[in-house]
Every structure is written in C-alpha cells, then in structure tokens.
Amino acid sequence: MTEESFRLGYLPGVTPAKWAGIWRDRWADRPLDLRMLTRAEGWHALATAQVDALLGRLPVPDPRFWHAIVLYEERSVVVVPQDHVVTAADSVVLADLAQETLLAPLDDPLDWTRAEGRPGEPARERPATTGDAVELVAAGAGLVVVPQSLARLHHRKDLTYREVTDAPRSTVGLIWPRVKAHDRIEDMIGVVRGRTANSTRGGVTPQAAQREGEAQREAKAKRDARTQHGAGKDRAGHGRTAGGRKAGGQGATGKGQGRRGR
Q1: Of 86, 10, 85, which is closest to residue 43 (Cα–Cα)?
Q2: Is 191 buried (19+), middle (13-18) or exposed (0-12) by CB count in 10 A?
Q3: What rounded mean pLDDT belongs to the chain?
Q4: Cα 232 to chain center, whole Å?
Q5: DSSP state, 240?
Q6: Which phi and psi (to 5°) does residue 163 adopt?
Q7: Where do the DSSP E strands lie in the chain?
Q8: What is the pLDDT of residue 50?
Q9: Which of 50, 109, 166, 216 has the fewest beta carbons closer than 10 A?
C-alpha cells in the first residue's frame, strides 16, 4: 500500500532537486510532493498544514512554533545594468553603493538589522517582489541586493551582478512544525543532512536538530559580527566608492592590485 505523500514546500531560489532525488531513490513507495511557494505562501502553508516541511530562509518568525536546522548560507549580490560602474570590479562593499538608489522589495529575504542599515538612497516605492525589483533595475530605477540564487533566477541579458562582501547573507534551512510533525520528518532530516541509507532513523531527534540549529545560528551571528567589524575598518581605511576606484585606476580596474590581488 502506498504511503501518504510527504509535502515539501520550497521558496524561489532554493533548489530541492538533489534532496528530492535522494528521497525517491531510497523510498519509491513514499511519494514526495514538491511545492514551490512564495515567502508569504510558504509560511501560510506551514501554519495551515498544507505542507509538512519547508525549505525556506531563516530565521523563522517565531521559534516557539517551528523547528529549523541550517542547511547552507548564500552570499549576497547587487543586481546592476551591464554597463554599470561596479561591473569593473569582481566584488564590492556596501560603501560602494552609498550614492546609488537601492530598491527594497517587500519580500526581501535579507536581514538588514545586523548591518549598518541598507546602503544608498531608498527608492520612493517598494516593489512587491524581488522579481519586480529586478525589472525596475532593468528600467534604470535603481539597484537591488539579493541572495545570489535569486539573481540567477531572475536573470536578464541586460543585467549582471557582483558580490557584496559585507552585505547580510541569507541562510536556508529545513523548517517544520513543533507539533503534529509528519511521521517521516526524520527521514527528510536525514536526507538534507547527508545521512546514509543505512543510518538509523532515530539518529537525530527534532529536539537535537533544533539545538544544533540554534548553535549554528549563534556561530553565524559571531561571524556576522566579525565581518561587520572588519568591513568597518576597511571602510575607515579606504573610504572610496566603486566609481572612485574606477576613475583612479585602482581596485575596480587594477585587478593586479585590487580585490583579486588580495
């Protein structure tokens, strides 16, 4: 008899193909129902039990109701027109965007509270989605900083992107409810954490996974603090923008002596 399917939601930019393949190879008789959802849809689907777990972006809105384990961290990039000055560099820092108009989509997955605030001049209006923000970049209305996977998802031939080394990063995790969890959640935890097919199903409890997730988030907070401290010293020591580097022949264009050389 075929088991009830495990319903796994995932957000734009998150790619579940690898984990879905492992699941189906191991348990052909346990259907996996993949559902791509927007950020708002994802949390609503979890709250109303329309999905059993979500591959989403952390932190969770209320840890009292959700278990979460960290899977990976994404670097952030700024999406710009192909001929923008920052394309002369391999990467930039937030200070390089201080004179730019920065778009802030309503579904922005980045947590700017741990940075010194969003750089640049705010746009007059906030686009509804990241996809809308990318369209506005193409129209010349400003720039947008997003996780790299979203820049790739909304790729256009007339746009490109560069890493912003001191921007907040997006953390992707597996999220599931603390109560009424699906019987097969342990199997999904094992898949995303890389456990082998021979590992015991009871090897990791949701409580242990939560403790590990909290430890990983604490470690990430410490890394963010060190990154911000280092970025602050860099800005104090150099105090230049991407445009200034290009005009001066250093940094953006001086690849032998700029970021790549370091």
Answers
A1: 10
A2: buried
A3: 83
A4: 23
A5: -
A6: -65, 140
A7: 6-10, 32-36, 53-58, 66-74, 76-81, 91-92, 101-102, 121-122, 144-147, 159-164, 170-177
A8: 95
A9: 50
Cα 118 to Cα 6, 55, 110, 239, distances in angstroms: 39, 26, 10, 17
User: How many percent of the chain have pLDDT more than 70?
Assistant: 75
Q: How confident is the model at residue 234 (pLDDT cuts 50, 70, 90)?
A: low
Pairing relationship of beta strands 76-81 and 159-164 according to DSSP bridges? antiparallel
Q: Any alpha helices (H) in 101-173, and if so which ranges? A: 130-138, 148-153
The shares of helix, strand and coil residues in the chain, as percent rounded to the nearest 5, are 35, 20, 40
pLDDT per residue as tens digits for the range 24-75: 999 988 899 999 999 889 999 999 999 999 999 998 888 889 999 999 999 9
